[in-house]
Write a structure and sequence with these properties.
CATH architecture of chain A: Orthogonal Bundle
Oligomer: homodimer
Number of strands of chain A: 3
CATH class of chain A: Mainly Alpha
Strand order of the largest sheet of chain A: 1-3-2
Largest interface: A-B, 50 and 50 residues
Strand content of chain A: 5-15%
Largest sheet of chain A: 3 strands, antiparallel
Helix content of chain A: 55-70%
Radius of gyration of chain A: 18 Å
Number of domains of chain A: 1
Chain lengths: 142, 142
Amino acid sequence: MIDTTVESEFATALVRMSHLVQYVFVDVSREHGITPQQAQLLCMLIGGPLGMSELSRLLHLEKSSLSGLVDRVERRDLVTRVGDPRDRRTCQAGLTPAGEQLARDVHNEISARLDAMGQTLPDADRRHATAAITALLAQHTR
Amino acid sequence: MIDTTVESEFATALVRMSHLVQYVFVDVSREHGITPQQAQLLCMLIGGPLGMSELSRLLHLEKSSLSGLVDRVERRDLVTRVGDPRDRRTCQAGLTPAGEQLARDVHNEISARLDAMGQTLPDADRRHATAAITALLAQHTR
DNA sequence: CTAATCTAGTTCGCAGTACCAACTATTCGT
DNA sequence: ACGAATAGTTGGTACTGCGAACTAGATTAG
């Protein structure tokens, strides 16, 4: 039997790294009493409120999925929907004070853990890898 | 108001890269009619059957979650449970021929897409980044 | 200016994910 | 042989994410 499975060190490294990052997300979110999806949403709102359509695009979610996600964090008083009087169809999701605090805590904790991992790398290597990844992201995020 | 949010380029790059990889996983899995979790399980079994406990550890899932996941792929005839006569408590999950084919297809397609992304990087940069990530993974995977 | 259309978001039903607690069955230690 | 440890399953709950159908408000065409 022929082994038809392609082995790419690059792809393998990315996939395994991705899982490692996911696990950090899961762990930190859980420690703060929310789900990773909710954490991602909160972190995305740190920069300011965003419309539902915008969020749905940023999070790669169908608008119906997003409605539910926002419902659940709103029920926890972490986010509020604010309507726009200029276009009464739309609304913006923004962080409540509690949500703002939680978002920053989660964001900082995740950054701290990933940075701690990065410390095991020589500074030059880490900077080089960061630059390469950032360049790759720039190419593949429209 | 003070901005208490830490900004780390390294952490940000990892998180965004992780999401990009996740989207590839979601897209490819969907195109093959399975969920990303099922795809991850199938890919993990390419190397041969594994016990439920082993899988639960590798996938960071509670054993009850894994039972359900294996149930669902077994219902689709992609995986079978095989009991061990030497220890009648345990069982191994292994790929069926259809599962083997699907696993390889999904794995190859994911690798191909990630490699294609990597092509936008100079060879030296890509190799350097791969080495750095691999080193980091070695440190943080027991 | 109204009718047709488009857009923004919600609701509903469904399958899947993941957890915990409780359980069964088997094996191991003494 | 009996109590403890181990492997896996079951059942209940909350959350995730999709598609289809829907509501309401904005926009465009005639």
